[in-house]
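To whoever is on call:

I kicked off a structure prediction for a single chain this morning and the downstream step that reads the tokens threw a length-mismatch warning. I double-checked the sequence; it's 601 residues and nothing unusual in it as far as I can see. Pasting both halves so you can look.
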Amino acid sequence: MKIKSIFKIMMLPVAAVILITSCTKETSEIRLDPALGTTKVFDITSNSATVTGFVVAEGDGFTEKGVCYDIAANPTIAKSKTAFTGVATTAAYHVPLTGLAYATPYFARAYATGPAGTVYGEELTFTTKPVVPTLTTVTVTEITGNSAKSGGTVTVAGGADVTARGVCWGLVDPPTIADSKTADGEDVGAFTSSLTGLLGNKTYFVRAYATNSAGTGYGPTVSFKTEIDFPTVTTAAVTEITKISAVSGGNATYDGGGTITAKGLCWSTDPDPDINDNVIAGGTGTGAFVSNLTGLTLNTQYHVRAYATNSKGTVYGSDVAFTTLADINKFWVVGSYNGWDNSDNAKFIISTATNPEAEGYVYFPAAGAFKLTTDHSWDNAHTFGDNGAGALTNPGSDINAPAGYLKIKANITNMTYSVVPTAWGVIGDLTGWGSQLPLTYDPALLIWKGGVHMTAGGWKFRANNDWGYNYGAPAGSLYLVAGGDNIATTVEADYALTLDLSHPNAYTYRADRWGLIGDATPGGWSDDTNMTWDAVNGRFTVTLDLTAAAFKFRANDGWDYNLGGSLTALTNGGDNIPVAEAGNYTVTLNPWTRVATVTKN
């Protein structure tokens, strides 16, 4: 209703009151025309509302007053009406209208009936509120131990848009959308719902739901019972791995609604072992269990899976693979060379998975002695020395060590050892496979090194001019193999050779041609300017014209190994080296210490 109209109607009774109260006794016979208004609608619900009327009459006045209403405009008492039956204490009266239809626009106006007939107040409009949707719930089908099918039909939207629908379910009747639920679209009509994540052997209650602006409506509750489901089990990580044993296990976290009659660990050398393979029983019921695997083969990969069984069947945890330890022995070499420091600072020798004899290289700057230990305790069980006849014993006497780069071997199986001084060099097509060219040992860098002019062809590292001590390498590998393949050189040039035997059973080498590259050099960033070996000064050198730009040192015409940064501490991949002024320069490089000079001539 418009505010101006309400104001006019409200003023009518006020004016009437003023007139009545201003009359004197002489004018009391004056009869006023009735004044009638419809002032407001309140307390609107989905099926009711309250309308306020206002009537003022003199003398006999009205015999009936109330509110008439209809879904069409200009309602009259010939349509629906509700008379006011209360006691009027003021000119205003309130009439509750009931039995209305939800979400429906209505027209209402006050009326009053007297001797002269019926008069009406101004017309007001209002709309009842919507109701929650009306639904049916579909019978539950396709029931398993953890899932089922249901659904429903939204038969009545309730006078507002259906914004969500589905089914809700739980273990308590009745379920609501605060429990588990599906989301199966909007609007009226039928829908199908998939219930998942159910527990086995449980009674569930399910009902359809739909939501609109009035709230959420539900269909009838339907109950069903799930079947017994498979149990759930996880496989524990494998720990305490030795050469012949390990520890694993699992955890049966859910019984599927039945009884777990067996659980444990199955294992095999094949992936995904099952209960037809090796089995370690772990009891019954839910809960964690520990399985000790014994009698395993050393240096072998195994697979384990936990299992659990109930009346539904057997299930497995994830496959966990592990490898037993190889028969590897590690001896710390503790002696005069390191001040008898029996700690991790000592050098060590070690065996491999395929060779029980431990070996390694240790540099003794002077003749001395040593012992071998398998830990740092010096107790007799872990200390090995000479038995007086050139064999190992516990704890034994000190083992004599000559000065030099010693190849030390020890075999804990047959209790033997050997100590051999070695002097390394290279031999191959560059020497005609005659005497080897010597390399120099650098005790600070722990490497054998040397600058050698190499021809195209094959070559190897050899010690003591004895083929009993030689290393080669597979094509493309920098790891050396005792007695391995010849190392191939395809470009004749001066090479910096590096032999690193400081890591037992992981011996490596490098053979590098060195050059300069950059916009300061004649070849720019495309072509290297090669350096040559200066045997007198023990470094690579080149004299060339440089421009005021930058350059780097690069090995073998490739970027996988390049040196830059500070001339006194070059690093692999370091910054470009600047040249401040163009001119003729002599550039030197020690690739082992990574120190360079750039001298203008």
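Update from on-call: the warning came from a stale cache, not from the record. Cleared it. Sanity check on the structure: Residues 3-22 form the longest helix (20 residues).
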